[in-house]
Specification:
Layout: E1 6-11, H1 18-29, E2 36-41, E3 58-60, H2 68-86, E4 90-94, H3 96-109, E5 115-119, H4 123-129, H5 131-146, E6 149-152, H6 155-163, E7 171-173, E8 199-203, H7 212-222, E9 229-233, H8 239-248, E10 255-259, H9 264-268, E11 273-276, H10 285-292, E12 297-300, H11 306-309, E13 317-319, H12 324-335, H13 338-352, H14 357-378
Parallel strand pairs: 1-2, 1-4, 2-3, 4-5, 5-6, 6-7, 8-9, 8-11, 9-10, 11-12, 12-13
Helix pairs in contact: 2-3, 3-5, 4-5, 7-12, 10-13
Length: 379
């Protein structure tokens, strides 16, 4: 029989993304008197591995790469073998590739426990960027409809999946958690804040959905009137073209790429404004980090997350996605209005507490216990 306390989480790896950070925070803060978390990774790698609690067993499902069909078949078998070994009371996958494989494994092997998936991105928007997801969506949608429960991180994703035929009663919105205590640590960074020049900071993977070209064009429009600096935190496949664009726009002395930082809030706290230029987000965890350290935020009103986090503009400035002119205008306006920046600075930390890890993990725990109890009653 499954252990009533044992939970199995499955992820691709623990690379440096918001979803992976959120998963580690959830696992680390689960009540150990009620739950025994286990973690399986397609590949046992990633910067957040060292942040995972020491009492969490970690399993590697696919140590060697193969072709697509062989790879996924091995993943199915590995998930089944691990399930038979540890007998969890509940399994949760995170991110769409893992979710699809996990749900296929459930179809093949009929696990005797609830299978839950966690969706961190907006499916419709991500399909416009990711051809693999677009091609797999008919199967993925059908599989998602078979899940015992689907956790999403924003109301927008919930509405989208409900429109794709997933029963609304099987959808729960639980935002990603923020560990506020980490943000209280003293600032100790390599970057030195420029004197007498406004500083903007952006953070996130250097990938097309983040639309850094729009941000760079906006900064180029602001620069002649307002000498400023822009720090960009993150790594990713778009770094080379972004460096080329910086040079083309004559921003070499304005923009600095600082790479991935496991403590981005230390940099964000030094900024006059945090900027998010994404075309779409699952939620936008980094916005909450900026609020928590009291940095005013300008974000695109993209699907999904910024609208929810900033409460329609109460806690920060929202601009249309993809519009460099509007982003430039918002930067100018906020730089010109220190009183408004101060209001955002004071209001941000209070808003961030709504996403504190203790509140969020409690929601996960209550949901897990309910799903396990309902499943056991059906048996």
């Amino acid at each position: 029989m499954p252990s009533n306390k044992r939970l199995l989480f499955i992820a691709p790896n623990l690379g440096g993304g918001g979803a992976e950070r959120a998963l580690v925070n959830i696992i680390n803060h689960l009540d150990r008197t009620r739950f025994e978390p286990h973690l399986a990774l397609f590949q046992k790698e990633g910067v957040f591995l060292e942040e995972l609690a020491d009492d969490v067993p970690v399993y590697e499902l696919q140590p060697t790469d193969y072709g697509v069909l062989h790879r996924n078949w091995r993943r199915l078998r590995a998930i089944n073998q691990l399930y038979r070994t540890i007998r969890p009371a509940l399994i949760m996958g995170i991110l769409w590739q893992v979710n699809s494989v996990l749900l296929l494994a459930q179809k093949f092997y009929s696990f005797n426990c609830p299978v839950v998936i966690n969706e961190q991105t907006a499916p419709a928007s991500s399909r416009t960027i990711d051809s693999r997801r677009s091609q797999a969506w008919p199967l993925t949608r059908w599989l998602y409809q078979q899940a015992d429960h689907v956790i999403v991180i924003s109301e927008g994703i919930a509405a989208e999946l409900s429109g794709e035929g997933i029963n609304r009663s099987k959808l729960s919105v639980i935002h990603n958690p923020l560990v506020l205590s980490q943000l209280q640590e003293p600032i100790n960074v390599n970057g030195t804040r420029p004197d007498k020049v406004p500083l903007l900071v952006a953070a996130g993977r250097l990938a097309k959905p983040k639309n850094y070209p729009m941000l760079l064009n906006a900064v180029a429009k602001v620069g002649p009137e307002y000498p400023l600096k822009l720090w960009i935190l993150g790594e990713g496949p778009e770094k080379a073209p972004l460096l080329d664009l910086v040079h083309t726009l004559n921003l070499d002395q304005t923009v600095s790429f600082l790479g991935f930082q496991d403590n981005p809030w230390h940099y964000i706290k030094q900024a006059d404004i945090f900027v998010l230029s994404s075309d779409y987000e699952g939620f936008g965890n980094v916005i909450i980090e900026a609020l928590a350290v009291g940095t005013p935020v300008i974000a695109t009103d993209c699907p999904y997350g910024p609208q929810e986090i900033l409460a329609g503009g109460v806690y920060g400035v929202l601009v249309p996605p993809g519009d460099a002119n509007e982003m430039a205008a918002a930067i100018r306006s906020l730089l010109d209005d220190p009183a408004r920046r101060e209001r955002f600075r004071l209001a941000g930390p209070s808003r961030a507490k709504d996403f504190a890890v203790d509140k969020i993990v409690t929601q996960y725990e209550e949901l897990f216990l309910r799903l396990i109890e309902q499943y056991n009653v059906r048996l």
